Amino acid sequence: MTARNPATSTPLRIVWVVISLAFVVLSVRVGFGATPKIVTDFSNSIALSLAFGGLVLLTHYLGLLSLGQGALVGVGAYAALHAVNDFGAPVVWMPLAGLLAGTLVGAIVAIPSLRLPKAYLALLTLSLAVAYPIILKQVDGNLPVTLDGEFVAPSWTGIAEEDEHIWELFLVTIYASAALFLVQGLLRGPIGRAFIASRDEPEAARAFGVPVYRLRLYGVALSGGMAGLAGGLLMIPTNFNDFTHYPEELSIKMFALAIAFGGSRLISSVPAALILIFLPVWLIDRNWVVEYGWVGLFKSEGFIYAALLLATAYLTRGKGFMHLFERRKPRNIETAVTTNRGASLVADQLVALENQLNRIEGFVGERPDISSRQEPND
Amino acid sequence: MSLFLQRTFDSLANGSAYAALAVAISMVFRSTGVLNLAQGQLAMFSTYIALVFATGPSPYLKFSSNTDVLGAAWPIWAAILGAVVISMVIGAFTERVIIRPISADPVAAIGATLGLYLLLGAFVRKQWGGRTMFLGSPFPQTVDDRWDIGGARLWHDSVGITLTMIGVLGLLAVLQRRTKVGLAFRAVTSNRTGSLMVGIRVSRVLMLGWALAAGIGALAGGLIAGEINVRPDMMGRLLIFGLAAATLGGLRSPVLAFVGGYLFAFLETMLGGYVSFIDSQVTLVWALLVLIVVLFVRPSGLLPRSEAWQQR
């Protein structure tokens, strides 16, 4: 995985532009053509893709494990909702309160845990995931808290007042696209390369002056901020919040999808978010959630996520399925050979020597009298 | 004073469960470097197995109605021991089939343990449903089964659970300190390459470590089920306290993890009992805050700093 591939070809760039345009067209088409329920689900998916982007940043760029991303989304949702209800913040800007809260909580969790082995971040974030619903229940009570505000589309958009879900979708898309674009730009630059250096060779990175601890701290805070912003954005289509929205299972599912679909591009977070939102809808539509026994097990969400995690662990060694598409042939091999002719000559001779040694070994293997004389010394 | 004594007594049973899970987590992490997040779910699963053994023919529990295999209901002790044995086999199988092929990559290994976590949860929910069930305690549990000490009630089952766990963990310590298997285990946790070079079968030792950890977790689950009842999410809270307790030992010291288990249970009971705005649910949060503060002040937990730094 590389932060920047200077050799990205023009056709590849064109493919990316086409994919992006197709996504924009799809968003507009869904916005104006689908039912309000699907539009709301789509808005939720786009918002959550930001949280997945944060997880991809952690797992694939920094090599860190966060099992509390769902809780950080919840923190952002809580902050955004109360920024409007308690402090009178404009509803359009409320996701920024989520961004701030997510960044702060991410940093607070990261400061002690990053001083220790990487497992501690997983441990503390998992604890956060378990603790979050309990805290929210204590703070907000058992009943849902509703947002004191509405999203009315400006008249120039031509969106009718009863079609606020379309305006909400566009708001969420604008926020999420801007944030993903900014973070992707950050990751393609020196900061992204420093992240990868601190992941692959932390000692060498330190030797080259990269502040590894501080960099990881910024990374976790940025990831938390993305999750918090996603939480704030979720409040736009959802409009209410309660303690059952962000259980620890959500964080674990998000982790599973992030490591399965994550890669060196944040855009890989979009399919993960779509699966997270639409898989339960699909299972409910087929009435599979009420089946029990072995058949019910194979059709359950838990089993599907477990299979996904185990398949990712075995087939990709935890690098994610997108990684399988990122293997590229090494460039300019011929140039390297011609410019390092001396080195290649030595390498050729070493290979020839190894072949000779293998032949001798085979010969000794066929002569028990020789090999038995050698064994005591071995 | 009697109230303080009562709360101290109340923390004993939970402390035993936290301590057992913490020791199991530490054992696995110390030997393989893998944080086994499925430890709690393994314990929950084996508690259901104990329930199947203990229930006998029952229309509500699948597999238990198969009298050809299980016969009539087993006594609770036998049911728990049967579950421990099965859990040890599952632990060894997990290490051999799931963890060993990917143990070199920590992300893959943690992902696999989370996969196991989800798989066991889904299995239990789909086979036995999500309702609460009652296993009962292997120790006397009636209102008269208690000692009155200084105005506080010390229940027999709390003492039984605590002594059993202390006994089992003591046996584990003896196994590690006084036997060849224990010596091999200590060698592997200390230096795996060196152990290979002197002829220790590292893979078998690691498998044994996972089996023992699963067995300890199963025992804790079976014993504590009499207190908290059996349901699919019964181990969530216990796992978090177990992880927190293991952290006090830097995830590497079973002895400190054991102490941490009782310490966190004590803290949980005292906070819930003496601080008016903390109810029993929120004690988990305060315990986590304590953990964060401990990590701020002393990142290595209670371990000597030099030892903890070697893990980085």
Which features would summarize this protein structure in a list?
heterodimer, A: 378 residues, mainly alpha, ABC transporter involved in vitamin B12 uptake, BtuC, 2 domains, two-stranded antiparallel sheet, 1% strand, globular, B: 312 residues, two-stranded antiparallel ribbon, 13 helices, 3% strand
Characterise this structure.
The complex is a heterodimer of chains A (378) and B (312). Chain A has 378 residues and is mainly alpha-helical. Chain A has helices spanning 10-33, 36-61, 69-87, 94-113, 119-140, 164-188, 190-200, 202-207, 212-238, 248-261, 269-285, 293-298, 301-316, 333-339, 341-366, 368-374; strands at residues 145-146, 240-241. In chain A, helix 2 (36-61) crosses helix 10, helix 3 (69-87) packs parallel to helix 5 (119-140) and helix 6 runs antiparallel to helix 9 (212-238). A two-stranded antiparallel sheet of chain A has the order 1-2. Chain A has two domains: 10-325, ABC transporter involved in vitamin B12 uptake, BtuC, CATH 1.10.3470; 336-372. Chain B is mainly α and 312 residues long. Chain B has a single domain (2-136, 157-309), classed as ABC transporter involved in vitamin B12 uptake, BtuC, CATH 1.10.3470. Helices cover 71% and strands 3% of the residues of chain B. Chain B contains 13 helices and two strands, in the order H-H-H-H-H-E-E-H-H-H-H-H-H-H-H. Chain B has helices at residues 2-32, 39-55, 67-70, 76-99, 106-128, 156-178, 180-190, 192-197, 202-228, 236-248, 254-274, 283-297, 305-309, and strands at 146-149, 152-155. A two-stranded antiparallel sheet of chain B has the order 1-2. In chain B, helix 1 packs parallel to helix 6. Chain B is globular and about 60 Å long. At the A-B interface, helix 4, helix 5, helix 10, helix 12 and helix 13 of A face helix 5, helix 10 and helix 12 of B.
